[in-house]
Amino acid sequence: MMALEMVEKFCRMYSQGNSLRAIAEKEKVSPNTVKKYLLINRIPVKQKNIIYCEKQKDDLLNGAYCGIWAGDGTQYKDGGYRIKICCDSRNLELMEFFQKLLLEKFGKKSSIVQEKGNRAFVRFNSKYIFNFVNKFLIFGEYKTKTVCLKNKVEEYSDRFIIGFILGLTLTDGCLKSKFQFTTISTQLAKNAFDILEKFQFNPRRYIQNRAKYGWNDLHNVYLNRAESVKFQAKLDTVLKKELRYGKGVVALKVYEINK
Hints:
By secondary structure, this protein is of the alpha+beta class. The chain has helices at 4-15, 20-27, 31-40, 59-72, 92-106, 127-132, 143-146, 158-172, 186-198, 225-242, 249-252, 254-257, and strands at 73-77, 81-88, 111-114, 119-125, 137-138, 148-149, 173-174, 180-183, 204-208, 218-222. A hairpin with a 4-residue loop joins strand 3 (111-114) and strand 4 (119-125).
């Protein structure tokens, strides 16, 4: 039985912010031993939320996450595998939806970080999720300009591509009066166009030339008003029935409607 003095020391060191491993190394015991006596003394122990596999294998969730990441995601190695989904700070409900999706798909917890102005992001660390997008997407060093699906749209299941276009809509899409998706990635715009055609819509596309200003061209894919209503209904069905989310796509981006 561990000496009472040692157990009290474990508790004191942990309350001061020392990790289980740091305490174990200093006191020459195992991290599990430290954890055991902390729990005996009813001290909550923080558990690392390390992901080694998918919690749920579902093409719809795969597509939704990849679409969200393609639209507003970024990731880099910063002493770990840091991933961020950029958002508008006014869109708290959308960020919470992203967190829900991460939990459902990967069992991964995340945090919302607010910055100055209207900038915010959903942030988490995971080597597994960091590498997960490589199964479906390709992108270069300048991710925003180069990201796109790895294969042709017709090579993916309908569940994947409806999830993917939902993710793109929730990030770089707009449904104020009609659907519009805007990106500087030529191939990602083509992916969105091809997905809409696959679902029997009649998309249109135009390029906003900004080279004279030293900026990247904007590729816009859009639907007319009548088709936008049908497209919104399709996404709402996915959200409410498939993803069991009580509200539709416009409600998730409600701040846009009130601008």
